Amino acid sequence: EVQLVESGGGLVQAGGSLRLSCVASGITFDDYAIGWFRQAPGKEREYLSCVRNSDGRTYDDVRVKGRFIISSDNAKNTVYLQMNNLKPEDTAVYYCAEAMSSCHGGFGSWGQGTQVTVSS
Question: Which of 50, 52, 93, 97 is buried most, with the most CB atoms less than 10 Å from its CB?
Fold first, then answer.
């Protein structure tokens, strides 16, 4: 069974930083890509970033490029999202999801999400 578990969310002031973690199990981690998404209340889910675990290639959405950094630790089956210079509009539930081999295919299993709240 594929399982993704996010952690690291919380309450932070604007300008602060958080690092989210996504631990994957039930997959051959190196063969997969892991993406980060977020969804704010009343808004659609947004794609943020993705890493292809086979070679570490990353794909960032322009809205977070330069502020959010995705990375992976294949030995720990974990993908991180380092979020810097956070803004109130970054407040959302953050999710990770897995895709077989490529960031450009469909994402399959999803985690339960972790809440990030940025105060002004």
Answer: 50
